[in-house]
Automatic annotation (TrEMBL):
The keyword Hydrolase applies. PANTHER family: PROTEIN-GLUTAMATE METHYLESTERASE/PROTEIN-GLUTAMINE GLUTAMINASE, PROTEIN-GLUTAMATE METHYLESTERASE_PROTEIN-GLUTAMINE GLUTAMINASE. GO terms for molecular function: phosphorelay response regulator activity; protein-glutamate methylesterase activity. It comes from Taibaiella lutea. The lineage of its organism: Bacteria, Pseudomonadati, Bacteroidota, Chitinophagia, Chitinophagales. This is protein-glutamate methylesterase. Pfam families: CheB_methylest. Keywords: Chemotaxis, Hydrolase. The active site is at S18, H45, D138. One of its GO terms (cellular component) is cytoplasm.
């Protein structure tokens, strides 16, 4: 197998959320198989607080290690990476992370769209994008791009979301592959091949 073929076969999952997404995210992570052979990247809107315990919170009950993504870090399979507060997280062609402190997008840094758009360009059809609860429309454009590049898309059901604006925004601009309750999303990740 050529090196380029191997790169094309590499898979990734990106999960974005904002207000009301911690509870569904904890449920999803707790149900992930320890044998996942791709990285999972989480982008949450959060305050820039050095005392944040988000990484510790997400590690509880997750069979995979959870860590904050670092600049120039190469993604590894079976690890959940969390976008650090106050930085946009991009995925480079060599499957490394890049942190960017440019302007906020839709009042947010990290921006879900920024990560989703960069991931779509790198992983194309081998990407699964998931959009959870939130109060604005960040993530909708990026999730649509994932779908247009051949990837799979999941939106948390607005009826099941604490803050339905974000899932509704995505549903209003394109037809996601799945609209699911938070309790059903982990099964899609575990089956992603």
């Amino acid at each position: 197998m050529e090196k380029d073929d191997l790169k094309k076969a590499t898979k990734c999952v990106v999960i974005g959320g904002s207000a009301g997404s911690i509870k569904p995210l904890l449920q999803i992570l707790s149900k992930l198989k320890a044998s996942l052979d791709f990285p999972v990247i989480v982008i949450l809107h959060r305050k820039n607080d050095p005392r944040s315990s988000l990484e510790t919170l997400l590690n509880n009950g997750c069979a995979l290690p959870v860590k904050e993504g670092e600049d120039k870090e190469t993604l590894k399979n079976g690890i959940v990476y969390v976008a650090p507060s106050d930085y946009h997280l991009l995925i480079e062609n060599d499957h490394s992370l890049s942190l960017d402190a440019s302007e906020k997008v839709l009042w947010s840094r990290p921006s879900i769209d920024v990560t989703f758009l960069s991931a779509a360009e790198v992983y194309k059809k081998n990407l699964l994008g998931i959009l959870l609860s939130g109060a604005n429309n960040d993530g909708s454009v990026g999730l649509e791009r994932i779908k247009n590049m051949g990837g799979k898309t999941v939106v948390q059901s607005p009826d099941n979301a604490e803050m339905p604006a974000m899932p509704l925004s995505a549903i209003n601009i394109f037809k996601p592959d799945y609209v699911l309750k938070d309790s059903e999303i982990a099964a899609v990740i575990n089956r992603f091949k």
